């Protein structure tokens, strides 16, 4: 079995060479099993200044409120009619439970109205259990909300709203009650999952680790995962990963892509985009129609009436834009330079790129979002 000496590994790391455009391993990969877990809960926010739910439209708020009172031995008579809780709002609470979170630690939570509450500003969240996907309670939430938005309304109906007043945050608003089991300390190996699967990047990670620790320590599972032999002792495993995650890796270049956002007119051209030989011209035809009516006067003693005669003027103008040519292996800089020379707007550039793709001259994936 392979034994690890953190001091020797650290010394080897100090003499490792770093690439000019290298990135830390922790920035391009994550450890399998080390992840956050989503929590969700349902509760009540009280103390609102008349901006709570209208219980006639959100009966679940009143039902939740009555259930809470029943837990304290208070029963609301059934013949009291419809109760209006203007200072209470039903809310959903969600949080991310970090990896390795232990009981007693606190996490931030987000509180959002699920009824028709106008604002949660000034409210306090009552004790609410937060559950995981398995139905177990992992944290307890409670505290005063911090709301970044506000809402104001006048008697004449005028209203102003800034940001979103129906949602807020409670820093450290939930206390962890249960730890999530982790497989970090199990087995004699760990798996590194790449944030962006790439065979070249996986190979560089394997080569970097094996050059430092010896052949066979790291093995590529596929283009998105690398399995690394790790010590069994938890303390040594932490030291070992502390060294690995700071290794400088040269990631493989991404696939050539052109991203077009047709809604905002944003166009992003990747570094490796190239164009095969092609000639492009792009212009637009502008048709202008103006109405210039004239007044027609009848002749003397003709008993005629003055009439307005319509007169239209139609003018067509074609923009004279030169044709530009892409040579073989045209790079990104040359594409941008050629397009700027003809003064193409973002909409024109979209049409040019789509036409180049249809012609088979654009050597990249064209993605429209």
Description:
A hairpin with a 5-residue loop joins β6 and β7. Residues 1-20 have low confidence and may be disordered. The chain has 7 helices and 25 strands. It has helices at residues 6-14, 25-28, 59-71, 199-213, 234-244, 332-341, 346-358; strands at 23-24, 29-31, 37-46, 89-97, 106-113, 124-131, 137-144, 150-153, 159-162, 167-176, 189-194, 218-222, 225-229, 248-249, 257-261, 266-269, 274-275, 278-280, 285-291, 294-296, 307-309, 312-318, 324-326, 362-363, 365-368.
Summarize the structure.
The chain is of the alpha+beta class. Helices cover 20% and strands 34% of the residues.
Q: Could you give the topology of this structure?
A:
Blueprint: H1 6-14, E1 23-24, H2 25-28, E2 29-31, E3 37-46, H3 59-71, E4 89-97, E5 106-113, E6 124-131, E7 137-144, E8 150-153, E9 159-162, E10 167-176, E11 189-194, H4 199-213, E12 218-222, E13 225-229, H5 234-244, E14 248-249, E15 257-261, E16 266-269, E17 274-275, E18 278-280, E19 285-291, E20 294-296, E21 307-309, E22 312-318, E23 324-326, H6 332-341, H7 346-358, E24 362-363, E25 365-368
Parallel strand pairs: 15-25
Antiparallel strand pairs: 1-14, 2-11, 3-4, 3-6, 4-5, 5-10, 6-7, 7-10, 8-9, 11-13, 12-13, 15-16, 17-24, 18-23, 19-22, 20-21
Helix pairs in contact: 1-5
